[in-house]
Amino acid sequence: MKNAQRSDLWPLKSRLLGLTCHSMYLPMYYIFYVSLFSFLSISVHARLPSKIYGVNLGSWLVLESWMLPAEWIRMGGQQCSDCSQCIATEFAFARAYPDTVDGIFNMHWSSWFNEDDVHDLMEVGINTVRIPLGYWIVEALVDRKTEFYPRGGIHQLKRGLRQLKDSGIIAILDHHALPGVQTPNQMFTGRCTSDVEFYTDYNYRRALVWTAVMTALSHLDPDFGSVVAIEAVNEPIMNATQTPGYGDFQKNFVQVVRAVELTLGIDVPWSGTKIAPTDTTNFTVALEESLPNFTPEVQSALLEAVPILVEVITELALDSMTRFSPHSSREPLYTSFMDINWQYDNPPNPSDAQIGPQIYDNHLYYSFGGVADPNEQAYLESICNLQRVQADAALGNSPLVFGEWGLSTQFNATDEFLYKWADAQKLAYTKGAGWIFWNFKVEISTLAGDLARQWSYLEGVKLGFLTRDPSKLNDTNVCDGYIQ
Ligand SMILES: *[C@@H]1O[C@H](CO)[C@@H](O)[C@H](O)[C@H]1NC(C)=O
Ligand SMILES: *[C@@H]1O[C@H](CO)[C@@H](O)[C@H](O)[C@H]1NC(C)=O
Ligand SMILES: *[C@@H]1O[C@H](CO)[C@@H](O)[C@H](O)[C@H]1NC(C)=O
Ligand SMILES: *[C@@H]1O[C@H](CO)[C@@H](O)[C@H](O)[C@H]1NC(C)=O
Asked: Can you tell me the distance from the alpha carbon of 395 to that of 431, in angstroms, rounded to the nearest whole number?
């Protein structure tokens, strides 16, 4: 959505120049405009579009083999019904092929999401991407004695973010696969296992270090200029009695983001927390100096992040970027959480953690059951009467983004139904801050069958279920007759 972002500049531009557009001033005005644009482009990106029309970049930096079964087999992976029992995840793959895993994954990262895909997404008006990431993208966090993941993803992330930025598409960095695994037996955690260890001090701290590193890179590396938000945890266990400490983690997550930003001189509305001005222009030194201002949990995460940042900064050849000026024109990132209603049994409320801009994420799939009876009528009645935006807002979880959804169903859907199914969901989700489809694409192959028809955004547009302009509906009256 280049247009939406650019139009944000107009009022500002006329205010600063104190003149209205007149052909006589055009040449001078043009020069002002260009230099203003390059100066402002950083903060312009740190904003959400007025409505999010997005897709997930799933299976890029966290590979889920069900989405690309033929490529996975070619890479050397396996398929099985219980994903903990064969080479079905990144973890199992890296353990099986320690010598070749990095090269093989590098080829996957380059081919699954690249310039052509960015172009395709622009063509269909996508303004936002959510990028699922594993903790292992910060390589120093991996305990190589017991944990196995490919290396080198950070370079691909930097490359992809740069391409997105050049296209005016904003990005949400989504911590999708947490240290210790946040939910059992799911490919999306990078490791299928029933041994869930995320909800422990050790792994919470690793996730906070990850957060500090990603926040710093988002502000220091111009290639990360497309990043507007960081999401703390994708899909934690829904039963809140099984996620001890998650509420404290939410607060620490936000404080780590804001601590890094305060150190960078970014204006963060954190009452009572001011950090002393520093003489150093070396960011990691400044981060160490600012430690006493924060809680012990935040301090320990930042302290652990410092040497890792020095390493990542060297690896990405960003040394000059770490010289920062304490008066930054950047805007704080949005922090993002799964909404309170994702969990049950007395869940913590992520709105209690908020300092500065924050968004909430809800995921809705009908195909896994538990939402509506498996038939067209029940699906449309359910979606046309969805109350999630209101229910979340009543608990302070606003704005709400539907960060994952799709066209999949528990029954064999006709084309006629899928036109309606796409429209009705988009109608429901745009009552909130917007939507992010899962996924931007899936494999098209004999082995994948007709997976793409209901799981691929780009294929859905090609087939006509999803309108070419995402702000439009095929039939704006799709819910007539279903609203109760
Ligand atoms: C939630 O988890 C607790 C602890 O494991 C368990 O006792 C309880 O039955 C679970 N609740 C539901 C609804 O499954
Ligand atoms: C910044 O300080 C760190 C120590 O925190 C040091 O390792 C690094 O070399 C310094 N960077 C520059 C560019 O001076
Ligand atoms: C859907 O169609 C396939 C064949 O195309 C069939 O095998 C399957 O049983 C059908 N599923 C349902 C739920 O009707
Ligand atoms: C939606 O658009 C398709 C063409 O893309 C058309 O065949 C279909 O009839 C339309 N459905 C409705 C309900 O307007």
From this structure: 17
**The CATH number of the domain covering residues in 12-108+134-353:** 3.20.20
In the Cβ-directed half-sphere of 151, how many Cα atoms lie within 13 Å? 15
Do residues 380 and 409 make contact, with C-beta atoms less than 8 angstroms apart? Answer: no
Distance CA 393, CA 351 (A): 10
Ligand nearest to the CA of 411: 3
183 Cα to the center of ligand 1, angstroms? 14
If you average pLDDT over residues 102-121, what whole number do you get?
Answer: 98
279-296 per-position pLDDT tens digit: 888 889 999 999 998 999
Give the nearest ligand 2 atom to 310 CA.
7
Q: What is the pLDDT of residues 301-329, one digit of tens each?
A: 999 999 999 999 999 988 776 777 655 67
One-letter identity of residue 284: T
Rounded mean pLDDT of the chain?
A: 90
The residue-averaged pLDDT of 453-461 equals 98
Q: Tell me which of 289, 290, 310 to substitute to probe ligand 2's pocket, judged by most ligand atoms within 8 Å of the beta carbon.
A: 310
Ligand 1 shell residues, CB under 6 Å: 239, 241-242, 345
Verify whether ligand 3 is closer than 6 Å to residue 194 (CB atom).
Answer: no
Residue position matching structure tokens 């890029």 = 60
The tokens describing 55, both together, are 């897709």
Dump the DSSP string for 233-267: -SS--SBGGGSTTHHHHHHHHHHHHHHHHHHTT--
Helices and strands, number each (H, E), in the chain? 16, 8
> What residue spans define the domains of the chain?
12-108+134-353, 365-484
Give the residue, by CA position, lying nearest to ligand 3 atom 3.
Answer: 412
CA of 410 to the centre of ligand 3 (A): 10
